[in-house]
């Protein structure tokens, strides 16, 4: 059939040529941009997936930057703490030197006090000057704000807490086991020792967590004198005595499993009296002596010992680790340590400890901005008016001139306790910051880098051009365009054959 108004072959050629040109242009675009997906029409599902992966990738890279910034912040804070640690060590040496009063003139004491004043001033200066981009790091800016502290909480430290925006976190304690001291009761059946005229000395060895002392008492020695003699060495043994009408109660100075009271009778010396001997206290009542004798004095040659007990409980539903009257939990949402007073530590009840209302240094260490990806860290105030506070002895600032614990005429024993406590606090902060850098920041950066690699690989598989495949497609499309162009030319020339029919 020969028609000239409708050239079907030309139409087919034009359609095929248009398709081949489109494929050729697509290959050229992919090779020139390096991307397999340039527009939504290239791969709608692939575009959605790759855009999500690109968003994740941007967040991961930002989180790496945050982690590196966090490491820099902590480095500066730890540097300041390191200097303070060195100053406290020097302060400890000055205290020990000044405590040796023999051969030490008043002028030397005053000179040492001047050095101590200088050290205290330097610690305060470091606290107020250690900063990162204008933010003070060691003056309490990044400490946690706490309100509603219960009277049963004698001391507390909030190391870390995750708070929702504008929210608060209540810290509640449930005491499940009471804290106890080591305790024994020595019964003498009266207000003094009766050795039945033996002429010997009643000899005992009293031991505690700090050490032991051997003591001798003659017949007729009053219980008040025995109490006084034992308490003379309380700082050495860690044991305190309290006399009653017919016996002596021995208590460890502190609470906890590591504390104990031990009495070893070296020479019973025929002590006589009704019910004389060593008794323990009731397991469920630390104020009541067990009526059953534990050992006579004569049988206690190897010693009778009673250990204390740590408080046990939960904080916000988490089982706490404990030492004495102190409880601590450390989770990704809350790291807090608190010490209860004696009444609260011995009552099996709930203590509404306090509420954390804000504060802390927050670092976003994950690509997703939510509470799970946030890490919070508390950096306490390390000025001299905040460091120390050992067993109510006072603060580091109390070592200054004219204060109660100065080295010229103050209480040197309390001064050393304060410095020991300050050293422990600074060392604990340095250890905590170091653990944060090593185990949180370091591990986070490594983990995020791996995530960046894998996310980039996944995004590349979906979106990037495979040049080997695309160059082969380009060659194929070029050939097809050339072929379809030639065929179209032939199809367009076909109607001219009709002229031959017109003669």
- Structural class call reads alpha+beta
Count of strand segments: 23
General form: elongated
The termini sit apart by: 17 Å
Radius of gyration: 41 Å
Q: What summary fits the major beta sheet?
A: 5 strands, antiparallel
Strand adjacency order, main sheet: 3-21-5-16-17
Strand coverage percent: 15-25%
Query: Would you identify the regions where 5 or more consecutive residues have pLDDT less than 50?
Result: none
Which percent bin holds the helix content? Answer: 40-55%
Mean residue pLDDT: 87
Helix count from the secondary structure assignment: 8
Report what the structure shows:
With 503 residues, the chain is α+β, with helices and mostly antiparallel strands. Among the domains are: 8-34 and 465-492; 50-67 and 449-461; 144-177 and 311-359, no CATH class; 183-307, no CATH class. The chain contains eight helices and 23 strands. It has helices at residues 8-33, 44-99, 106-129, 223-232, 234-237, 342-345, 412-463, 467-493; strands at residues 131-132, 135-136, 144-147, 153-161, 169-177, 183-187, 202-207, 212-217, 239-243, 247-252, 260-267, 277-279, 281-282, 285-289, 304-307, 312-315, 318-319, 321-323, 326-330, 334-340, 350-359, 361-364, 374-377. The strands form seven sheets. A five-stranded antiparallel β-sheet has the order 3-21-5-16-17, with no helix packed on it. Strands 4-20-19-18 form a four-stranded antiparallel β-sheet. The protein is elongated and about 165 Å long. It starts with 7 loop residues before the first helix and ends in a 10-residue tail after the last helix. 32% of the residues are buried.
């Amino acid at each position: 059939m020969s028609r000239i108004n409708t050239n079907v072959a030309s139409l087919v050629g034009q359609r095929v040529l248009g398709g081949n040109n489109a494929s050729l242009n697509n290959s050229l675009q992919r090779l020139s941009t390096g991307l397999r997906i340039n527009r939504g029409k290239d791969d709608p599902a692939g575009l959605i997936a790759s855009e999500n992966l690109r968003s994740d990738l941007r967040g991961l890279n930002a989180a790496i930057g945050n982690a590196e910034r966090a490491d820099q912040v902590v480095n500066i804070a730890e540097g300041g703490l390191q200097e303070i640690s060195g100053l406290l060590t020097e302060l400890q040496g000055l205290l020990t030197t000044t405590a040796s009063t023999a051969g030490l003139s008043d002028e030397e004491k005053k000179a040492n006090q001047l050095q101590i004043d200088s050290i205290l001033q330097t610690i305060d200066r470091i606290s107020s000057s250690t900063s990162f981009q204008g933010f003070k790091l060691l003056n309490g800016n990044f400490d946690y704000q706490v309100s509603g502290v219960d009277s049963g909480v004698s001391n507390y430290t909030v190391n870390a807490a995750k708070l929702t925006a504008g929210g608060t976190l209540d810290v509640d304690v449930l005491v499940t086991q009471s804290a106890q001291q080591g305790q024994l009761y020595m019964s003498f059946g009266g207000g003094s020792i009766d050795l039945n005229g033996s002429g010997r000395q009643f000899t005992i060895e009293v031991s505690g967590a700090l050490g032991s002392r051997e003591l001798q008492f003659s017949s007729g020695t009053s219980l008040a004198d025995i109490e006084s003699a034992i308490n003379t060495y309380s700082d050495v043994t860690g044991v305190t005595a309290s006399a009653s009408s017919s016996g002596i109660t021995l208590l460890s100075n502190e609470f906890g499993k590591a504390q104990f009271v031990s009495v070893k009778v070296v020479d019973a010396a025929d002590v006589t009296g009704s019910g004389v001997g060593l008794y323990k206290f009731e397991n469920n009542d630390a104020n009541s002596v067990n009526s059953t004798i534990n050992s006579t004095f004569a049988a206690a040659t190897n010693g009778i010992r009673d250990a204390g007990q740590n408080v046990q409980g939960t904080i916000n539903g988490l089982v706490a680790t404990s030492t004495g009257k102190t409880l601590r939990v450390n989770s990704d949402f809350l790291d807090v340590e608190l010490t209860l007073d004696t009444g609260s530590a011995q009552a099996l009840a709930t203590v509404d400890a306090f509420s954390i209302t804000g504060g802390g240094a927050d670092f976003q260490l994950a690509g997703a901005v939510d509470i799970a990806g946030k890490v919070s860290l508390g950096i306490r105030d390390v000025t001299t008016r905040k460091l120390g506070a050992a067993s109510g002895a006072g603060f580091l600032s109390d070592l200054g001139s004219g204060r109660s614990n100065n080295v010229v005429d103050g209480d040197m024993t309390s001064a050393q306790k304060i410095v020991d406590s300050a050293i422990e606090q600074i060392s604990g902060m340095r250890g905590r910051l170091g653990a944060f850098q090593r185990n949180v920041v370091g591990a986070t950066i490594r983990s995020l880098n791996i995530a960046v690699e894998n996310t980039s690989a996944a995004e590349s598989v979906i979106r990037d051009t495979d040049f080997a495949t695309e160059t082969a497609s380009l060659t194929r499309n070029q050939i097809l365009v050339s072929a379809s162009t030639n065929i179209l030319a032939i199809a367009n020339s076909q109607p001219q054959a009709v002229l031959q029919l017109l003669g």
